[in-house]
Amino acid sequence: MTRILLSPLHRWVWLDTARRARKLLRFAETEADGGRDLVRAAELTPDPLLRRLFLFHARDEQRHAELFRGRGAALLHALSAPSSPTGYRADWLAPGERGLDELRIEELEDGALLAFLHLSEKSAAMDFASYRDVLQHDPSTRAVFEEVLHDEAYHMNYTLSQLVRVSPQRHQLLLWRVRLSRLWKGYLRLALALAGAISGLILTILYFTLLAPFGYFAKRAARREPTGWLPVSSERNASLDRQY
After folding, report:
1. Residue 197 half-sphere exposure, CB side, CA atoms within 13 Å?
2. pTM of full prediction above 0.90
3. Per-residue pLDDT tens for 147-197?
């Protein structure tokens, strides 16, 4: 249902070529960061099976970064051609991106990390599927998401199965903890965005209701007040002469 409601928004976001290229390049950075986190997780885990799986996952993330980077660079190159009618626009809206949570590998046990990875991969797969569905006009970018989605399905499955293996009694609790943490962080991001929008609106209202009228009356008063040297009458000059 959510995908259906957001489909027009995603279609509009991905319609602009410049914005599409920038989003792909940001996805490349996120995937590369995720790969580095997984390599660090492989170094820290005492579980040999998880070590192999994390390294395999990290290799996939690096490959995804290369796919996104290559396609984003190709779109930017196409934009630089003189015949291209599309220019750069403000990228003020970018829904559904990954990498919004700061992952501290050293502070997480294997179960908590697997729960985090599972829900992150699930969320990414939903977002990427939505983007793929609105990219009929760009088959090359659509093919990139198709390839990435194939790996995301495997990542979702292995993280869940390994979570059940390493934490058979607590895996549901760990998943709910991650869900609540993501909801709380999402609420904080929304609250900060609303606070910024409201403060901007209040400042705009104050400008037009207080500052603008004060500026208008100040200009009127300045026009009424005499400026520069005033001429001295002859009577005033005579009076000054008598005094001295």
Report:
1. 6
2. no
3. 999 999 999 999 999 999 999 999 999 999 988 987 877 667 677 777 877
Topology of domain 2-88+104-168, CATH: Ferritin (1.20.1260)
Give the up-direction half-sphere exposure of residue 65: CA atoms within 13 A in the CB hemisphere.
16
Q: Which residues contact 28 (CB under 8 A, 6 or more apart)?
A: 64, 65, 66, 67, 68, 69, 72
The sign of the CA dihedral 119, 125, 130, 131 is: positive
The DSSP symbol for 136 reads T
Residue ranges per structural domain of the chain? 2-88+104-168, 174-218
Alpha-carbon span 127 to 146, nearest angstrom: 12
Continuous H helices in the chain: 2-15, 17-44, 48-79, 110-133, 139-166, 171-206, 212-224, 234-243
